[in-house]
């Protein structure tokens, strides 16, 4: 049996203000927004990129966020990237720097409170 050729098409978010939240994420990813009514689509940027789709929130935000994005940057770039994202309107939640040896990350929240992580992995040593 051949393994399926599967990739992430888009990460979907409900938002109180889809256009505003999409503008934040467009600045994060470098995507150009495509607006259709009250929905906004951000296409993938470059090979390995991912799309994002924003639509109007249909109910109250759950107390516990069941999923979140883990974004990866090159080793040594996490602090600078976190500062850039804070400048765009993200909120700092916490750092995890010594829980496991293969990753360090910072958890942030976007302007509507959706948490996401910015991670860096040390170079592999053989």
TrEMBL record:
Domain (Glyoxalase-like) ranges: 12-118
SUPFAM superfamilies: Glyoxalase/Bleomycin resistance protein/Dihydroxybiphenyl dioxygenase
Domain of life according to the entry: Bacteria
InterPro entries: Glyas_Bleomycin-R_OHBP_Dase, Glyoxalase_6
Pfam families xrefs: Glyoxalase_6
PANTHER family registered for this protein in UniProt: CONSERVED PROTEIN, HYPOTHETICAL FUSION PROTEIN
Official protein name in the record: VOC family protein
Protein source organism: Pengzhenrongella sicca
Species classification: Bacteria, Bacillati, Actinomycetota, Actinomycetes, Micrococcales
